[in-house]
Amino acid sequence: MNVKKLTFLSIYTALLVVFAYFLKIPTPTGVVTLLDAGIFLAALNFSNPIYVAGVAGGSAFIFDLLSGYPQWMFFSLIIHGLQGYFAYKKPTWLGFSLATIVMVVGYFIVTFFMYGMAGAIEGIVPNLLQNIVGIVVALLINKLVEGLKLKWI
């Protein structure tokens, strides 16, 4: 990986953290954000699934740290990293659906161990909505920037 790619990935990660941090909705077991929109947008445009996974996991990790949810940091790193990886594999509705399942099931399992079955069940709908909104926002942003001929990595 060259300096240009590393710089782009770092800036994209930072932008996702800022985007998620200022547009968040607290829930009883965590927070709902638009971080997933950035993950799905990256899956549509990046040239490598490892880049998408790194940005997804890294931005979720940093977001949790800054938002006061350090207990979620390492879980978010893994769950959102896998979400980004699967979203990239097939940047279609099927790929996005697999990515959503990975994220919802991943957080369900972790929430079950942290808060019990009631907390895990409570988290399903917010996580599904977060992904659905993320997909819609990513597709809209992608359509808007398509004509700009941006150079993604």
From TrEMBL:
The record, for Pfam families, names: ECF-ribofla_trS (PF07155)
Is ATP-binding among the key words of this record? no
Membrane-spanning parts: 35-63, 95-116, 128-145
Which key words are in the record?
A: Membrane, Transmembrane, Transmembrane helix
InterPro entries, per database record:
ECF_substrate-spec-like (IPR009825)
Q: Which GO terms describe its cellular component?
A: membrane
Domain of life per record: Bacteria
- This chain's protein is named ECF transporter S component
Species annotation: Floricoccus tropicus
